[in-house]
Every structure is written in C-alpha cells, then in structure tokens.
Amino acid sequence: MRRDERSLAAVPGWLWLLLAFALAAQIGWLSARPPHRPAGLDLPPPPGPGMLRLASFGEPAAAARVAMLYVQSFDLRAGNDLPYRKLDYGRLIGWLRAILDTDPRSTYPLFAAARIYANNPDPRKARAMLEFIYREFLEAPNQRWRWLADAALIAKYRLGDLPLALRYANAIDRLTTRRDVPLWAKQMRIFILEDMNEVEAAKVIVGGLLASGRIKDPAELRFLKRQLQRLSSRGARSRPRLPSP
Amino acid sequence: MPAASIARSVVLEARRSGLPWLVAASVAAGVGLAAFLSQVAVTGSLALQTAIVAALLRACAVFLVALQVITSTQREHDDKGLELMLSLPLSRPAYYLGRLAGFAACGAAVSAVVALPLLLWSPPEAVLMWALSLCAETVLVAAAAMFFSVALVQLLPAAAATAGLYLLARSIGAIQAIAGGPLAEPSLPQHVARWGVDAVALLLPRLDAVTRTDWLIYGAPAPGQFAAAIAGLVVYALLLVAAGLFDFYRRNL
Fold it and tell me: What average pLDDT does range B132-155 have in this prediction?
C-alpha cells in the first residue's frame, strides 16, 4: 500500500488550519458533553425465544457474551456502583434467560445473577433473581449447582429466609449426581437445618451419609463423625428434661 | 461549478449501478421480515417489527453507501479517471468535495427510501427524525469511506477500515461503560485501559446516540438532544473531510 507522496510542504496552510480546527472541535465537543450512557430504567424488553440465536448468525456463544455485555452496560456505569437496584428485574431476568437459551453452557448469566443482581437490597427483586437461578438450576443441576449454592447462602445470610435456603440446599443434594460436586455443597442443608434448630433431622442426614458409604475421603469421614457427635451433644442439651419423680 | 458537475456525475454513476435495485431489495426484505415477525410475535408485535426492521434497514443503508463509495473510488483509480480530472483546470478540493457531495446526495436518497416503510408502524415525526439522523450518518460514513479508499487505495483495506470505524463508533459507549464499571479492579493497568478507551472515544463519532430505534418505538427525542447528536456527526464529518483533503494534497499524481 506504499504510494508516492509529496512533502508536507505541499499542503496549503489553510488546510493545516482546517485540520487542526476540526480535530480541536471534535475533541472539544466530546469533552464538553458527558458520554451517552443508557439510564438504569432503560433496559428494553428481552428478545423473544430464539431471537438472539437467530441474530447470532450461527455464533451463539459469541452472541450470548455480547448480549451479556450489552445488559451489563445498563448497570455498570462509571462512578455509580449501585445502579442495578433500579433495573426492571422482570426484563432483566428475561434477558438473562434469553442469553442462557442462546448458550446454555455459558456461566456468565448465572454468575451475574448470583453475584451481582441477587444482592439487590430490595428483597422482592433479590427473591425474583434467586428463583430465576433455581429454575435454571433445574435445567442442568450438575453444571449449575454452584450458582444455586450461592443462592442458598444469599437466602440464608442476606434474606434470613432459612426455609428458602433449605429448599435450594435440598435441591442441590437431591438433583446433583456428578461425583465432583463437593461435599460442602451437598451438606449445606445440614448446617441450615441446624440453624433452624432441626437438630434431629440434621443428625439423620449426617448419619445417613456416613452409613451410605459414599464418603471415601478419611478427612471428610472424620469431619462428619465429629459433626455427628457435636449434633448429638447439642441435641442432648436442648432436649427438655423430664420432671424428676 | 466544476464541483457540482462532479457531484452530478457521481449520482449518475450510482443511479446506473446496482445501488437502486439493492436499496429496493433491502426495503422488500425489511417488509417481508416484518410480515414474518407479525406472525410469530406473541405480544408487542408492532414494536418488534419496528425495532428489527429499522435496525436491518439502517445497517443496509450504511453498508450499501459505504460499498458504493469504496468501489466507485476504486474504479476511478483503476481507470485513471483521477489523473484525467486533475489534468483539467480543476483544483484538488473541488474534485474531492465534488465527489463527496455526490456520495452524500446518494446517502440522503438511500436514507429517505429506507425510512419510508417505517411509516407503516411509527408516527411520522419520529420517522422523520430517524430519517434525518440516518441521512447524517450515511453522509458521515460516505466521508469515512472516501477518506479510507483514497488513503489506502485498495478495496479490501478501505472496506475493513470503514467497517472497523463504524462498528467501533457504534459500540464505544458500551465499551466505556464497561471499562469504567465498578467491577473492574482499581489497579494501574485498569486505569491505563480506561484512559486509553476514553482517549479513543474522543476520536470517534457517537454513532450509538443517533438513528436510535427507540425513537421509533418510544417517541421522537427532544429537539435539543437530537440537534446535539447531529451536531456531533457534523463536527466529525468536518474532521474526516479535513483529513481526507490533507491526505489528497500529499498524493503525487
């Protein structure tokens, strides 16, 4: 692409001035104006089923990630770390679902749902996001259990809703079948039951785990036995004493 | 007025090429897509039709105008038409601006035609603003395509550079928002990346703020907002013209 060029001296003075003025005008104009950023409530209605896939032109993995960046641009704005509170969660969940439909193996939508959007201080919006995670978990429990584990923790610690946390923890234990799902995720319901003062139920679960023979790791076995002893002693302490004759 | 004669010849060339047929085919494809969408949409079918057809027609208009400019400039170069023109008593700015005016006229005509089917679904004032905005956008794309095709000479680099500039200008707002988001780690590389993105943004037009489909769905923008968006395009088009003339003056013909 090399070509024969004249020296810079061949360019007339007025053109130098015009170029400098145009460049200064462009930079000045944009510097004086705040960049256009979509408002928090501007999230448009989500695309219908299959529309994102249609728009991906055979690149659903790329399209799903670009769509996530698009959704992100509505709340991750410079200098404002809480705009996601303002988003319409019905639309937001619709977008996340459409993106997951486009690329079901992508972890990005559920990561954003569990780590960002479910932390909304508005409990109604947070619960809606947790339910979205739960429903999506049911589609692929072995791939999506970690996000439901996050949801259970949010339900327990942020919302203080132990029955909801137990529901999610039970689902993880019941529906995951892969051997590499860690024990802490499958045992989560034990701790939740303990917090709910359902000590007997927790004891039954720990005892069942020990008896099932599924636990092979010696360290895990030791840990579970200690936990069973602790639960037993706690159960004995909390059991009402019979009146002495 | 030699520049006006050159502009007229550019428009004539476009009229005799396949451009009118391709614009007509784009409009037909848009209307056909709308008819299809109206059958499959469960709710909000009007908004769905408007949004998708407007986005499609905008992309078609920009693509066709850019390719028309690049191929026409390439043909002029290959046929030695440029040398012939400059052997006549014709200044370089008159030649360059004349051709650009012709391409701008083509862009305006294409914008007007592709905006027409949107009247089926959107109010006239919103369509008018959308069409004016698309007209400014296609003029800017014509200026960019002409700058790159004159500077880079070959077709492929010119098309790639024009497409790159256009796509980057359409997405720079989202890139800035993500680069400045609270999830990014506050480290030196992150600050450098953010300054870099902001610096690049200063050298790009804000194409994400113009020809917006939401004008057609949710109503026309406020006049001040519309005027500011168009003014930004005018300023950038001026920069492209100045840069193009600067480069054109340096060519040894």
Answer: 95
State yes or no: pLDDT of A242 exceeds 90.
no
- As a whole number, mean pLDDT of residues B74-97 equals 87
> Are the C-beta atoms of B250 and A3 separated by less than 8 Å?
no
Range of the domain at A124: 44-151
CB-based contact B177 A18, cutoff 8 Å: no
Domain total of chain A: 1
Which residues in chain B have Cβ-Cβ distances shorter than 8 Å to A81? 182
pLDDT at residue number A245: 37
- Residue in chain B nearest A15 by alpha carbon: B246
* In the block, residue with structure tokens 């003062």: A197
Range of the domain at B29: 2-250
Tokens of A203: 């004891």
Instruction: Give the nearest chain B residue to A67 (CA atoms).
Output: B174
Is residue A209 included in any domain, yes or no?
Answer: no
Q: Give the number of beta-carbon pairs within 8 Å between A and B.
A: 111
DSSP sequence for chain B: -HHHHHHHHHHHHHHHTTHHHHHHHHHHHHHHHHHHHHHH-SS-HHHHHHHHHHHHHHHHHHHHHHHHHHHHHHHHHHTTHHHHHHHSS--HHHHHHHHHHHHHHHHHHHHHHHHGGGGGTS-HHHHHHHHHHHHHHHHHHHHHHHHHHHHH-SHHHHHHHHHHHHHHHHHHHHHHHHHTSTTS--SHHHHHHHHHHHHHHHTS--GGGSS-HHHHHH-PPPHHHHHHHHHHHHHHHHHHHHHHHHHHHHB--
Asked if pLDDT for residue A6 goes beyond 70, the answer is yes
* Residue A219 domain flag: no
Task: Please list every residue in chain A whose beta carbon sits closer than 8 Å to the beta carbon of residue B239.
Answer: 19, 22-23, 25-26
Tens digits of residue pLDDT in A13-70? 999 999 999 999 999 988 887 665 555 456 788 887 677 877 777 778 878 887 887 8
Q: What is the largest CA-CA distance in chain B?
A: 64
Residue with tokens 């019941």: A174
A160: in domain = no
Q: How many domains does chain B have?
A: 1
CA neighbor of B69 nearest in space, from B167, B160, B161, B149: B149
- What pTM was computed for the model? 0.66
A128 within domain boundaries: yes
What pLDDT score was predicted for residue A239? 47
